[in-house]
Design goal:
heterotrimer, A alpha/beta (228), B alpha/beta (320), C alpha+beta (455), B: 320 residues, alpha/beta, D-Maltodextrin-Binding Protein, domain 2, 2 domains, 11-stranded mixed sheet, 12 helices, 11 strands, globular, disordered N terminus, C: 455 residues, alpha+beta, Heat Shock Protein 90, 5-stranded antiparallel sheet, 5-stranded mixed sheet, 8 helices, rod-shaped
């Protein structure tokens, strides 16, 4: 059984357990490692001990404002990107957060896909964390940069291709239903049919031509990444 | 019009210009016509539609006549400064606002002085043959005392009781110096002859009837060109008494414009030294402010009590 | 900026008018007092001379041989000479009988040997001032009261008074003029701090509720103190309400986020199509409500800020660049490329927060309506006016609805399944109008919508 290859380490600072659990569950199901702190005090401790690729920070916390953590974090010159989870939607609030050194923010409630996209963008901007390259057979996949290296040629993946491939490569030999892929790919206001998936699978197959990897179709079940 | 009753009293009356002219300026004056004729004639040249009636009388009479009927005259001219002043002070004169004249030579812009004339001593040259002519009042006193026989009954002066100008000269003399009273006493002792007017005194001097005349108007004496070989005019060297002849327009004039123009014409001529040769009247001496100026003090000796006192003193000195 | 303020007079006018009025009263008072005083002094001068004249005449009187003799000196009258040639009248009475002088001159019979009495009367048509004094003369067999009156017209006095009056009037007018100038100066000096305070308060940004720090004159201290207190209270209650809104949003949005996360997770697990549809609808409802709430709050903020623009110099290109960066993850999700077309910095004066919000709404819209794998162009232009255009390659605006779209809550008929509150264009339009510009909607000739935000 192939192990999961892409591992990012997150620190989630959120005092609402329900939400924290939901986020953690989702993150972990994607193969990431998530530590959860529910207080600034704990968060500071975690961030001093552990090395995180990314910090997700709620603004309103029981022992203070998330901004306090930001100030503290930046004061110690930590370059770990911070994405703020805010319930405030006002522009001025968002701007003051960015001024304090947050890399980005998402407004609650958020689309998990958007959070992922923002995380990816933040990681990409923070060039120090490019050790996330996954190599399977003769294919190297960099989910942060969104690139696929087959042999000598590097292919820049489109976002939807990237996200499908991310799923597939994290669990090779596993069949993903069209439905599942669709749920991952499209936000809920996109008015597209599940058949759109076929287009992206088709493109990925084209990218993988000449490599040891291929995507097979399993009628009425879905798709699977195969390794020669 | 001059009233007929008074008509005989005029020393002289002359009419200048056309008899048919509608405007006749009536001038009441104590100045001999011959002095004024050139002035009036030159005035009429510029005012062809005007004629002038020139009436001459003595200064005291002039004062009385004018006060009695001020409406009969347009212009009043007199050498008696005090009387003229009083008439103006009493409101008989019209103010002429637009006449440029030295401040000291006018009063209330109504009374305008236009000549400066000294009172002089005039002698008969014959009477002083071989002796020095006196140049001051003291000299005169000395000369009279030295030869009383020569001067007995041959000294003349104004009768201050009747002559306005004579009274004016006498009072001003008396004010200026005590010499006047000594002189008057000498006159009295010599049986002085008293005159009403300068003209008469000069006549008698020329004829030799009198040898000395005191306080004669120098202008009159010098004006008699025919007599200069018989008489000599002496200006007393100390404090000469100088009179300013003056004119004003009557408040009651019917011709205020013409009268005003005449006064302007008169003062204009008299202010101009260059015209002195053409016009016989001496000009206004603008070089020095006069000792006797036009001010309220001129009324002092017109006071009834003062006059009474002065005349009493004068009479007691002169009538012995 | 002062609509809705009830005006009752003007402090400046009131101050100026009372200063000028006071000066006018003072000037008039000065004029009358100085004139009255000058009259008194001038009259005193004339009286002294008249009195001296009367006394010199009285002193000259004596009784000799039963006659009254008044041999008064020349100076008695000469002292009465004036530069305006005032007329002089006099009368000497022995008891009630006129001895000499002018008959009919009004007589004041003062007490004997008690100095002169003075009065005014009219003689020979002229108003005159007269002085009168009496003296008892005692001779051998005679005892009479001699009364002397000397009168003089007042031309010189009036002339002097007119001169003084004119000078005082000129002086008074000058004084008045000076005070008027000073009044204007003093007023503007006094009003100055008030105007300064007004400017400093008016120039404040919408968030600036700090107390007035610059020093003010003592008289304004209570006002400024109250103002500071009011602002402190306002700031407190504002921050309270801000905190409240933030707290409320947090309280609502956090559980919503939880629900959404769970719903998403659930969706991944359920296979039955109708259940999946239900989950989708739920997630969509959550998104719609949170987005609507956010835009409503933004709209409220814009309405507030539009009246008090926080004017600053802004580079539009930088602003759009920053925005593009913020929005690129979302664009990426739909494989849309955000392309910035600009030649160089475009500087405008405006409220950065408002502009950011407005442009963000426009780009959000474009990202929603543009097909995936297309390009959304952000064009910053300088001519004819500074403007930002957002051009997509989507279906464009429905023809015939273009003019209605910026209306509040209006949504295009083709919005279909796309989440929106209908406030996005409204917000952009209001911000544009607050900056003196406008929003233009049109469809590109090659298809796609183009929204131009111009200044």
């Amino acid at each position: 059984m192939p192990r999961r290859l892409i591992i990012l380490k997150f620190l989630l600072i959120e005092d609402n357990y329900e939400l924290a659990n939901a986020i953690c569950a989702r993150m972990r199901s994607d193969g990431h490692v998530v530590d959860h702190a529910d207080k600034i005090f704990d968060a500071i401790e975690y961030s001093q001990i552990g090395e995180y690729d990314l910090i997700l920070l709620d603004v309103m916390l029981p022992d203070g404002d998330g901004r306090e953590f930001l100030k503290h974090h930046r004061a110690r010159n930590r370059s770990t990107p911070v994405i703020v989870l805010t319930a405030r939607s006002q522009v001025s609030d968002r701007i003051s957060l960015l001024d304090l050194g947050a890399d980005d923010y998402v407004t609650k409630p958020f689309d998990h896909a958007e959070l992922e996209a923002r995380c990816r963008a933040a990681l990409r901007r923070n060039s120090g964390t490019s050790q996330s390259i996954t190599v399977l057979a003769d294919v190297a996949f960099d989910p942060v940069a969104g690139s696929l290296k087959v042999g000598d040629s590097t292919i820049k993946l489109r976002n939807k291709e990237l996200r499908i491939f991310e799923l597939l490569i994290n669990a090779p030999q596993q069949i993903f239903s069209k439905q599942k892929l669709f749920d991952r790919l499209f936000s809920y206001d996109d008015d597209v049919s599940e058949n759109a998936i076929e287009v992206y699978i088709g493109r990925l197959r084209k990218h993988l031509v000449g490599s040891q990897l291929s995507i097979s179709t399993h009628r009425s079940l879905g798709y699977r990444l195969d390794h020669d | 019009m001059v009233q007929p009753v008074l008509a005989e009293e005029w020393e002289d009356q002359q009419f200048f210009g056309s008899a048919t002219s509608q405007k006749t300026l009536r001038i009441l004056s104590n100045t001999d016509t011959r002095f004024f004729a050139p002035i009036i004639e030159s005035f009429l040249k510029s005012q062809p539609s005007v004629s002038v009636k020139y009436l001459v009388t003595g200064s005291a009479e002039l004062y009385d006549i004018f006060r009695t009927s001020p409406e009969d005259f347009d212009v009043v001219i007199s050498s008696a400064m005090d009387l003229q002043f009083k008439l103006v002070n009493d409101g008989y004169a019209l103010a002429l606002g637009d006449l440029e004249h030295p401040d000291w030579a006018q009063w209330r812009e109504s009374l305008f002085a236009f000549s400066t004339e000294p009172a002089t001593i005039v002698i008969n040259r014959e009477a002083f043959e071989g002796v020095p002519t006196p140049s001051s009042r003291q000299d005169l006193i000395k000369a009279l005392r030295q030869r009383p026989e020569t001067f007995q009954g041959r000294v003349g002066t104004y009768d201050v009781r009747h002559s306005g100008l004579g009274y004016f000269f006498a009072t001003q003399d008396a004010r200026a110096s005590e010499t006047y009273w000594r002189l008057t006493e000498v006159f009295g002792s010599l049986g002085v002859r008293l005159y009403c007017c300068s003209g008469d005194m000069i006549d008698d001097l020329v004829s030799g009837k009198i040898a000395v005349a005191y306080n004669v108007l120098g202008s009159y004496a010098l004006g008699r060109e025919d007599a200069q070989s018989q008489i000599k005019v002496i200006l007393p060297s100390n404090f000469p008494t100088k009179m300013m002849r003056s004119a004003f327009v009557s408040t009651n004039t019917r011709l205020p414009d013409v009268a005003g123009t005449f006064i302007k014409h008169l003062t204009g001529i008299q202010a101009d030294i260059s015209k002195a040769a053409t016009f016989p009247l001496p000009p206004l001496d603008r070089t020095v402010e006069p000792a006797i100026s036009l001010d309220p003090a001129l009324m002092t000796y017109l006071d009834r009590l003062k006059r009474r006192t002065f005349i009493q003193e004068w009479e007691s000195a002169i009538i012995q | 900026m002062i609509e809705g303020v009830k005006i009752s007079g003007s402090l400046r006018n009131r101050l100026t008018v009372s200063l000028i009025g006071g000066a006018a009263v003072l000037a008039l008072l000065m004029y009358f007092i100085v004139r009255a005083y000058a009259t008194q002094i001038a009259q005193q001068g004339q009286d002294n001379i008249l009195g001296a004249s009367v006394n010199s005449i009285l002193d000259a009187a004596n009784v000799s041989e039963g006659f009254i003799d008044v041999d008064f000196p020349y100076a008695s009258f000469s002292m009465l000479g004036t530069d305006t040639d005032d007329r002089v009248f006099y009368a000497i009475y022995q008891d009630d009988e006129l001895l000499s002088g002018y008959d009919g001159l009004a007589q004041i019979f003062p007490e004997v040997d008690k100095g002169s009495a003075y009065g005014n009367t009219t003689f020979k048509g002229a108003p005159v001032r007269l002085a009168s004094a009496s003296r008892m003369l005692v001779g051998a067999d005679l005892r009479v009261q001699l009364t002397v009156t000397v009168a003089q017209t007042q031309d010189s006095l009036l002339g002097a008074l007119n001169r003084i009056g004119r000078n005082v009037a000129i002086f008074g007018a000058g004084f008045f003029l000076l005070v008027v100038i000073l009044a204007f100066w003093a007023t503007s000096t006094a009003i100055g701090p008030l105007a300064q305070l007004t400017t400093s308060v008016a120039r404040r940004g919408p968030q600036d509720l700090s107390p007035v720090a610059s020093p003010v004159p003592r008289e304004m201290a209570p006002l400024v103190f109250s103002l500071n207190k009011l602002m402190a209270r306002l700031e407190y209650s504002l921050s309270r309400s801000e905190d409240f809104i933030a707290e409320a949003a947090h309280r609502v949005r956090t559980p919503l986020a939880t629900v959404r996360s769970h719903a998403e997770a659930t969706l991944l697990r359920v296979d039955k199509e109708e259940n999946r549809q239900a989950m989708r609808s739920m997630i969509r409802a959550i998104d719609e409500s949170s987005r609507a709430a956010g835009q409503l709050l933004d709209h409220a903020m814009i309405t507030f800020r539009a009246d008090n623009l926080d004017q600053k110099n802004i580079d539009l290109v930088e602003l759009v660049q920053d925005l593009a960066m913020r929005l690129s993850p979302i664009a990426e999700m739909r494989d849309i490329e955000l392309q910035l077309d600009a030649l160089g910095p475009v500087s405008v004066i405006g409220d950065a927060i408002l502009l950011q919000n407005a442009i963000r709404n426009l780009v959000d819209n474009a990202l929603k309506y543009a097909p995936s794998e297309s390009i959304v162009r952000l064009v910053v232009a300088t001519t004819p006016k500074p403007s930002i255009s957002v051009v997509d390659e989507g279906a464009g605006f429905p023809v015939g609805e273009i003019n209605l779209l910026p209306d509040r809550f209006a949504r295009g008929s083709n919005s279909g399944g796309i989440i929106g509150s209908g406030l996005g264009l409204t917000i952009a339009q209001e911000v544009a109008e607050a900056h003196g510009g406008g929003l233009t909607l049109n469809n590109h000739s090659r298809g796609g919508a183009c929204v131009t935000f111009s200044f």
